Amino acid sequence: MPFCPSCHAEYRDGFTACSDCNLELVDKLQEIAAATAPGQGLGLSATPVLTTQKMMEADIVRGMLEAGGIEAETWSVGVTGYGSGLETYRVMVRAQDAGEAEALLKDVVEEGT
Question: Which residues in the chain belong to E strands, given as ranges?
Answer without folding.
Answer: 46-52, 72-77, 88-94
